[in-house]
Amino acid sequence: MLETTPGAGFSPEQCAYLEGLASGAGIALVLGGGAASPSIRPTPVDPMHAAQQRCEAAGKKLVAEEVAKRERHPLDRWDETVARAAAGTFPSGDEVFCLKYHGLFYVAPAQDAYMCRLRLPGGILPAWQARGLANLADRLAGGYVDVTTRANLQLREISAADGPRVLEELQELGVVARGSGADNVRNVVGSPTAGFDPDELIDTRPLTRAVHFAILQRRELYGLPRKFNIAFDGGGRVRCLETTNDVGFSAVKATAGPAPAELCFRMALGGITGHQTYASDLDVLLRPDDCLPVVIATLRFFLDEGDRSDRRKARFKYVIDRFGLAGCLTEIEKRLGRTLPRVAGVEFAPAPLHNPLGHVGVHAQRQPGRCYVGVVLPVGRITATQLSGLADLADELCDRELRLTIWQNVLIPGVATEEVGSLLRRLRALGLDFEAGPVRASVVACTGSKGCKYAAADTKAHALAIAERLDREAPLDVPFNLHVTGCHHSCAQHYVGDVGLLAAKVEVGDAEVEGFRIFLGGGEGSRVGSEAFLAKGFGPALPADEVAPALEGVFNKYLRTRLGPDEGFGAFCRRVGAETLLTEALPR
Q1: Same domain for 404 and 473?
Q2: Last residue of some domain: 315, 348, 381?
Q3: Which CATH number do you get for residue 260?
Q4: Number of domains the chain is built from
Q5: The pTM is what?
Q6: I want to staple 366 with a disulfide (CB 3.0 to 4.6 A). Which of 7, 198, 248, 551 is the partner?
Q7: Domain limits at 6?
Q8: What value does the mean pLDDT take over residues 145-174?
Q9: What does the mean pLDDT of the chain come to?
């Protein structure tokens, strides 16, 4: 019998090594005289596998994706990826799903190519990385990049042979793609103006970075039942729509009562606007250094309790539906090992006013003599040449970094006031601009049918055409949000815009054309705990070329009959009613 006690001829260091080796191999070593050592524990069961076992023990059948994850973890399938690349072939079957764990998406039939999604926590992109990504996109992708609605980037039109090479070169650039798709935590969003916003309460950059790396280093968190979204709003002028996330944090300033600190975060759970739900305030207050452990506890709760037998019900919202908010808080605190301070009895300073167009144009920073410039991108797309040019501008005139936003545009921070004119001239030389009408300035569009098999229309092309026509034919004098999405997954969040468009096929005579159903009156509250609204739809989908004329009628009625310039477009739509407005505007 093997003895591993110091008295049996082993040093303490050797005992520790052998115990670790035995534990890692799942071997139950017996120490001197057959007594089990309390320091040796069996290898813990992986939380994903344990949850799958509980699902089957309850008489339920695992969905195909869960079976694939159990048979062989997607992160362990790199050799197959390299082999396919050598053969010049794309994945099929469950390998399409599993490859998303590495950040590669086979997007057929929309494109016979890979898309690669990155992870850029807080949307922060150093100039040297931007230049490297531009070079990579030019050589191995389609010569452009897309800014996403999570302040992230995607590369498209990657060949079968180049998939692994793209991932390798990204790692050489210090850019992560792992876990950017499938059943993982997606890119962590933060305030795009963090660190230079004149009104911000808390700088979210340390938090987005901490959560990003904590997720990457915990293998258990690559076994979620479905995707999971996290966002931090620091309380400044430019929002990040945190209440559309599974977990959203909003900075607040406490002025009286039992707050754990003067500057805290409120926390909300369960945002998933494709299912017509904003996150609900959990009525707790967190110090900034509480946020990471609370995030991990929440993810472990989701790991344990998320549905693995029905993909439609596998999102965190449905865990909340089962447990209720109070029950969820109990479960999170159980995994955290302590209770969290409550909101009750605490008074707060008024939330700073947000600037709906603070992501476009020239704006003063909190640093004296410095500005940031919001660059308008056509529905989030920028060429490799333009991205490289922005990197040069950031290096030469600014803070050597770019900031991506959920509005699918780019901020250039740290511009000296005397250099603004030079920067604007060079932007225009790149074919980019910092000005746009209110619709085009804040239009958001998903990938659409050119790059996604689910989309029913070319959303980017239609969104740009509709926005340009509305700004030209029915110009508004108030900030405005247009969200254009290609399918029910609602990647562009059509329910949260002043106007949302949902793509559909429309019969015109004997032909079927691309069209959209119109939704009116959405709008997210400025912060957790404030009022938020979902856009309402009425009537059939219209052919794409009839959408702008219909909205022109709505816009004109708004300008004629609003209660005054302080009544925003969304508030007007909610007061008058989407059904009334669309009944009058739709063709008869």
Answers
A1: no
A2: 348
A3: 3.30.413.10
A4: 4
A5: 0.89
A6: 198
A7: 1-43
A8: 97
A9: 90
Count Cβ atoms within 10 A of the Cβ of residue 421 and give its class: 0-12 exposed, 13-18 middle, 19 or more buried.
Answer: exposed
In a domain, 446, yes or no: yes
- Phi and psi at residue 28, in whole multiples of 5°? -90, 90
For residue 558, report the phi and psi dihedrals to the nearest 5 degrees: -60, -50
Query: Is residue 35's pLDDT more than 50?
Result: no
**Region class of 283: left (phi > 0), else alpha (psi between -120 and 50), else beta:** left
Structural domain ending residue among the three candidates 406, 435, 464: 435
Reported confidence tier of residue 10, pLDDT bands at 50, 70, 90: very low
Same domain? For 158 and 203 the reply is: no
In whole angstroms, give the CA distance from residue 253 to residue 238. Answer: 17
* CATH number of residue 103's parent domain: 3.90.480.20
Looking at residue 522, what is its pLDDT? 87
- Tell me how far apart the alpha carbons of residues 379 and 408 are, in angstroms, rounded to a whole number: 7
Distant-in-sequence, close-in-space partners of 539: CB < 8 Å, separation ≥ 6 = 517, 518, 582, 583, 586
Residue 450 and residue 431 in one domain: no
| Residue found under tokens 């090594």 | 17
296 within a domain of the structure (yes/no):
yes
Neighbours of 272 (CB within 10 A): 22
**Are the CB atoms for 462 and 447 separated by under 8 Å?**
no
pLDDT, tens digit, 9 for 90 and up, residues 201-219: 999 999 999 999 999 999 9
Residue at 63 is within a domain: no
pLDDT at residue number 385? 98
- 403-452 pLDDT, tens digit per residue, is 999 999 999 999 999 999 999 999 999 999 999 888 888 899 999 998 89
Quick one: angle between helices 127-140 and 384-397, nearest 10? Answer: 160
